[in-house]
């Protein structure tokens, strides 16, 4: 739920409690142009003209449309010549309802609010009234269609500004819809005219209008519309037929006018009906008693002083008080303590003056529960027209309020975290962009994605996953600044919207703060969990021109930062978008290659260091594309993983290798190792594909070896993997751990895993025996392997010094360019002679 509801409950506030203060004033000799500049800078809609504390007049942005803004002499005249005087003012203590009547009576949009010493303390506007008058029931019942007063005035964006201004003045409009050649609608308001007078450049309507026009369908409720207008600080709203057709423009004035006329009329009608029904019931007492007793509404009758005389069964059911417990008491036994004294005071005042009161009120049941009810009180008069009784009729609206709140929150908020959902986020982003366009600042979008979140879900369960998401949501919210907004788009994807930003450094700091906040340990199921996140950042207008682009680019930047290593942030820039296009082409070609089975496999020998003979081979993916040329596996594999194509690719490689083994059946037989992606290990399909291949080519399982990258063995996952690895081992498939030393293997787990060999990563072998650190690590790996009874294969062996070091320290096998690069099958075939493998250059 949003932290503040835009409407108060029915306790009618007074004017002083809702105005925000902050008055702008100038002296009578200020020019119209200067006054506009002041208003534009302060972002306010009116200015007071004062002379030594005395308020002489007021001038507002609505007045600008009555000036011919193309005439300089009119803009240079002193403001006193055009100001409105006297200024209608109102005391701070006056109730809002009365203030609304005054606005209507004087036909003005604002009133000056003064304190007891008649000093100005603020301005009350129509929108304040709508926000605080407690008219939510009415707003909820109405849709936008019923509030439209006239069709929108649509003008082309090429219309000269002065003509647009004349039009607004002649037609009495406070805004025009501006239509662009591409069909997009924008809005030009009085505020834009003020901005123009204040010096903002522009000649035609399109130069100053804001795009796009914020619109909602005619079927939307007036309440949601008003709420959106308030949240976004907009005063106009396009009303559509639900599609592209613009039916009209709705402004605060329309909403207020509607409330003033229709709402009050409706209430009167309703009350008159109830009034006469009640009068009738008094006359027909027996009938009345029956009606009252049968009523599902709670009913209470008091005498003229407010002492309770009778209540009906529904009253007892709702409040918990039996008739005998309340007779003789006043209704204050039900008081919840939530309303101030003045609330009841005003209620009685209205009852005496107008004979009825209706509204929402919080009462307390006998058991202490506080609940909202919708209450109508009607004064009943005797034949001499004196009030002799009051009848109160009420319904418990707890249910309805809960439903309303829930409907509202489901539509715009994510249930799990309480954050705005994608819909609300997109709305906010759109508006932020429109605002930025108008005021020439930048908007930044941070796309936050948790790293390896699936792992948490898989290993700790969905409940723990949910807990992590809620915690992350909370931390994000605590970390952003006021004005920034956090949303959850779904899954583990969050966004942070920075609606106004001027510097990159600030964004960098924010991104780092977010990363740090998420990375702090999190307690889940009694253990400390470290969750990291990757962030991509895009900026309007530099990166993207609309919300769709900004989101897409931030997402791309996020992926890029994941590739660079997790727990990082990264800005989107054009270099990235080029990459994206390149990647799309790559994607298309990869689909093509898989469909045509045109991926190839090359083989690299593994050599026994003691004898120099062939011990095995490793199958390495090779892809030569007719358009793209050679694409290395380091590019293909991650892409296939991202696109969900890795399983198909893996099976094609496996099939090729099995077919090759079968073709070499009459030669020396050595195991061929196939590399496995982590993602393949996740599915049972892999096991069945393997069984199928072995059966089809009648291969002994010992001829296939699997290389699994070390990162698979992260502790949380290892338990699940273990079963699969056991199943492989049972079939007699050899397993080795690839790139050993670069990942996070837990030694404890290593001992439990059913593996045969470790492959010492090339990064350690590369600088042997010169770099001491690498020497130590290599020795440690060799020692460890010996202890566990595992073989060690050194990767990336390129020279004799490495061979000497490895042989001396009892490493079993070597693989590397010194012997051969990965070669096509016809060359690999020549190694199958049983001879020692010739080193290159020998
Ligand atoms: P890897 O499994 O660690 O494979 C060894 C990589 O090191 C190969 O690169 C190989 O060509 C290269 N290499 C071997 N000896 C030397 C040497 O002496 N010096 C240098 N500088 N490099 C050497 P390649 O073929 O580019 O493959 C890269 C990675 O792509 C592989 O690393 C493996 O993780 C992955 N990969 C390759 N084929 C497949 C496949 O069919 N499926 C899967 N899932 N991954 C594959
Ligand atoms: Mg490998
Ligand atoms: Mg390797």
Q: Can you describe what's shown?
A:
There is one protein chain. The protein has 842 residues and is α/β, with parallel strands linked by helices. The chain has five domains: 119 residues, CBS-domain (Roll); 121 residues, CBS-domain; 115 residues, Beta-Lactamase, CATH 3.30.450; 160 residues, Reverse transcriptase/Diguanylate cyclase domain (Alpha-Beta Plaits, 2-Layer Sandwich), CATH 3.30.70; 247 residues, EAL domain (TIM Barrel, Alpha-Beta Barrel), CATH 3.20.20. It has 32 helices and 33 strands. The radius of gyration is 38 Å and the shape is elongated. The N terminus is likely disordered.
Secondary structure category:
alpha/beta
The number of helical elements comes to 32
Cα distance, first to last residue? Answer: 76 Å
- The stretches of 5 or more residues where confidence is low (pLDDT under 50) are 1-11
What can be said about the biggest beta sheet?
Answer: 8 strands, mixed, barrel
Please write out the topology.
Elements: E1 25-26, H1 32-42, E2 46-51, E3 54-60, H2 61-64, H3 72-76, E4 89-91, H4 96-106, E5 110-114, E6 120-125, H5 126-132, H6 136-141, E7 154-156, H7 161-171, E8 175-179, E9 185-189, H8 190-197, H9 205-208, E10 215-217, H10 222-232, E11 236-240, E12 246-251, H11 252-283, H12 285-294, E13 298-303, E14 308-311, H13 313-319, H14 323-326, H15 341-354, E15 356-364, E16 370-381, E17 387-396, H16 398-412, H17 422-439, E18 442-450, H18 453-460, H19 462-479, E19 485-490, E20 493-501, H20 504-519, E21 522-524, E22 527-529, E23 533-540, H21 547-563, E24 569-571, H22 574-595, E25 600-608, E26 614-625, E27 629-631, H23 633-643, H24 646-663, E28 672-676, H25 678-681, H26 685-696, E29 704-709, H27 715-730, E30 734-740, H28 747-752, E31 757-760, H29 762-765, H30 772-788, E32 791-794, H31 800-808, E33 813-814, H32 825-828
Parallel strand pairs: 1-2, 4-5, 7-8, 10-11, 23-24, 26-28, 28-29, 29-30, 30-31, 31-32, 32-33
Antiparallel strand pairs: 2-3, 5-6, 8-9, 11-12, 13-14, 13-17, 15-16, 16-17, 18-20, 18-23, 19-20, 21-22, 25-26, 25-33, 26-27
Helix pairs in contact: 1-8, 5-11, 11-12, 18-19, 19-20, 24-26
The structure holds ligand C2E and magnesium ion (2 copies).
